[in-house]
Amino acid sequence: xxxxxxxxxxxxxxxxxxxxxxxxxxxxxxxxxxxxxxxxxxxxxxxxxxxxxxxxxxxxxxxxxxxxxxxxxxxxxxxxxxxxxxxxxxxxxxxxxxxxxxxxxxxxxxxxxxx
Length: 115
Known about the structure:
elongated, 3 helices, four-stranded antiparallel sheet, 37% helix, Alpha-Beta Plaits, alpha+beta, two-stranded antiparallel ribbon
């Protein structure tokens, strides 16, 4: 089984929406890490203080054949086409352990989508 990791950075107001969309598309869950960052759409200031939107890094570990539907669901739910809403990208996972409880689920999801 070949695994991939979707890494997404979104505003916290979007996190629950993309996690639910990912689950609907075949994901088993997510790891959510609070973060902050900067991009070309800079944060606003108020009396010299920077007002940064809260950001989450959301990680989805998936069997490779589930990546495309989950990534598309995250893209749509996060409204990533709009500037400053978030990004997502995929990286290969060389090895992973502790997934015994999810392997059967991944297998069933892949079979269901290939039927």
